[in-house]
Amino acid sequence: MNYIILLFLILFTSFSQICFANKREDFNIDGSHPDTTYIYFNNNGEIITSKKDSYSYQKIVPYGNDSLNLFNITSYYTDTDSLKSNGYSGRLNNPFEFGLKYIGELVSYYPNGNLESLEKFNEYSEPIDSSYYYYPNGKLKMIIVHEEIGKKIFSGTTDTQPFYLLYLDSIGNYLLKRGNGFLRIENAREDYTEGELKNNEKVGKWKGRNMGTFYEELYQDNQLVQGKRFKKNGEVIIYSQENVRSMATYPKGMDVFMKSLYKNLSIPQDLIKDVSSQSISVTFTIDRGGNTNNFRISEKVPLKVREQIVSAIKQMGNWNPGRLQGMEVNMDYTVPIRVK
Questions:
Q1: pLDDT digits over 236-287, tens only?
Q2: Which of 41, 162, 210, 300 qualifies as a cystine partner to 191, CB 3.0-4.6 A?
Q3: Residue 309 to residue 299: CA distance in whole angstroms
Q4: What 3-state DSSP class applies to 233?
């Protein structure tokens, strides 16, 4: 059942929408932390470059000392500058993980100020305890209990799965109890997924909307049998459990990518000595067309070094874009570059 919540969250952050970015100089608040970062989003949750045209924005501030690697992530609705969410996150270092790794309590609010959700995460960003979700009118919408099911094979960290305890409509009628009944998960952009659960497992036909198009999926024994994506041009894309989600890949493989990257890099020694660490973590977005953009490199790295890295990566050409439910999606990738 991790698939339902994890997939849904990834879909509606478009894989690259909740991420670290370079500091924006066009929006300053007196008294802000010198390393404060601002990221602006349109009403589709996509990153844009200015506050003026944004629906919401994030304020990212380092928390504690550098060794903690923690950040306070506060989001606001642009029109009113009212609080949208508040939580803490650790920095991403794994290229196979997406977005911010929330740690501790994450609280979200609707534009009218009412509580939208209350969630808790452990130090590995796994959801723990119970998560509570509400309607804009303040009534309870859903309760999810995160049950421990063992340890993850590679990391050894605790693995959990969501147990859907309750789901109600906006006037308080029960639609699901203890993992049995109808479930609909939606977000503010009119995206949703809905279907029946039996003993906390997906059964039968599920349908939904995301990335601007509709889809249908058929489940048997909680496994995806077949999915159909209905594109706006009339094309129908068929997918299955095996290819429902795929990473962005470099056409010639990552070994060739890294070797060619170092070959393309030409950083003078006088600049390398100004780099404090032995390696530089570079995060960039691979968009739906396979282009690399939205590069994020610590501002502690000299500007000319950052420019060299961006230029070297762009020389590598396009990637094969990531896919989700038959659609190309924006995807973040992180690579470590050794400079010493």
A1: 999 999 889 889 999 999 999 999 998 888 777 777 776 766 778 888 999 9
A2: 210
A3: 13
A4: coil
